[in-house]
Amino acid sequence: MSADVAEPAGGEPRRGALSALAVFLERRSLVMLALGFASGLPNLLIFDTLSLWLRDAGLSLKVIAIFSLATLAYSLKFLWAPLIDRTSVPGLTRWLGHRRSWMIVFQVLVMLGLWLISGANPAQNLGLMAAFAVFVGFTAASQDVVIDAWRIEAAETEKQGAMAAAYQWGYRLAMITAGAAPLLLAEAFNWNFSYAAMAALMLVGIGGALAAPKEKAHVVRPIHAEGTPSRPALEIPEWLARLALFAAGALVLGSGLAADVTLLAAGFANVGLGAAGEGLIAAWAMKPQGVFFQVAAVLAGLGIIVLAACPLPGARTRPGVYLFAALGDPLRDFFARYRGVAALILALICLYRLSDFVLNIMNPFYADLGFSKLEIAEVRKVFGVIMSVLGVGLGGFAVARLGLMRALVIGAFAGPLSNLVFAWLALQGAWLPALFIAIGVDNVASGFAGTCLIAYMSSLTSVGFTATQYALFSSLYALPGKLIASQSGRIVEGSAAAADAGGALAGLKTLFAGLPPEAYAGAAEKSGVTPAALGSGYVVFFLYSTVIGIAAIVLAFMVAARQPKPEVTAPATEP
Questions:
Q1: pLDDT score recorded for residue 140
Q2: Residue 57 · residue 120 · CB < 8 Å
Q3: What pLDDT does 15 receive?
Q4: Which one of 202, 224, 398, 563 has the lowest number of neighbouring Cβ atoms within 10 Å?
Q5: Helix, strand and coil percent figures for the chain, each rounded to 5
Q6: Rounded to an integer, what distance in angstroms lies between the CA atom of residue 169 and that of residue 160?
């Protein structure tokens, strides 16, 4: 242990301030900037930016919305992560190592997919472009799996905050690039040239992978199939049946996670059950019952996947052994290492960012206050990004300086408490300094908490299962927020109606007596309530978003007190 790292009694190592800052300048952290850029670039290009190209080509909004399913692979990547953990790239792995070889493969495939999109014409070959977008989504999600695994294995736990911060800085830079550069290039040249240029930018990621420190030997956990005879004639049909069931479960699971049942309904239509597909679409669209159908789909999809991986009753077969071990061993390893606290850890992961995820109505809120679109864009997209970058850096510094669990507890407070500033903003009207303050505080807190959570989830993985376990954690942590966030608008409007009707919430209306008449006026008319009542509804919502964060605070303290200290392992890369 170096001289500027102190070990408090019963606690985690604490670094000096200069030592904590120096972590950001290490070779691994600088490599993560490039890898984060490569990770963030394709995400926006296969839906958000692509949707503008599709609109320019004359396609309807309904058709364009279907392209959002191209990003579904990001939610399902844990399903094929075991394959990445257990298989190598012939020839390339011996030269570059396990993680870097897979990085190069997927980065080249992402580049190829973007180049194929650049050569397509959505007006003439929409199906082909959709296939290319799905291909990019799959390869980009797979690239994320490998980059996350390399990041975790390349540095010690106390450096994971800096690694996560560098990754997020690169990711955010890529999001800005993918959101602006293609539009400027399309205006100057055309969309095809624009996407060809974006494909070339993936060379940044390839450069990062090649510049990364050389890996040590990768550990592959064995699957014990001894004593199970090989019967190819029987195993091939079994593999096909299991994979078909696996794909069906993934489709059902994805329909719930994405809150979009279009693909599943199309599948029903293809087998002559069009009415059932239409019924599913109607069920998903119901308010508020649709969220319960989505939860049911997630649970049903997971159940089907488990069924596809389970051994046959009374018969030990190689497909059953391999699938059950590939998906089950990482979970068994996690629950064995964190016996007695594993359920609390998973609950903490699910609830840690819940206060942030429910804030999905912020643009309407700013507009209802009376801010112009230009003001919202300037403060959110420019100042907000700067504050987010600052928060990410502070999170990485806190993990290195204070230790992981202390930083995690601070982050648990930061998210919910920062939402109170929006309750204050709701009382200010369209006052621009207040918007700067609110967005600044929220983005710093959100960036801080996000970095701490990434570093914490990284610390939970074990050698041999890194990609699978982290992919599962990262798919899991956003799920409750996605489902609960669907009720945000109903809470605002329901509370506003209750304030107008009298009772406990009516007293909040007096807080808005001094606001200018234009605040909430237009939106209140659409909602059928008074402006003061709508303002009261927003205040109630932001207080609610703070209260639901208390569970994460309690869980953070419980986990910090009960979780065993992780074993100190050397990074899986050379200096």
A1: 94
A2: no
A3: 57
A4: 224
A5: 75, 0, 25
A6: 14
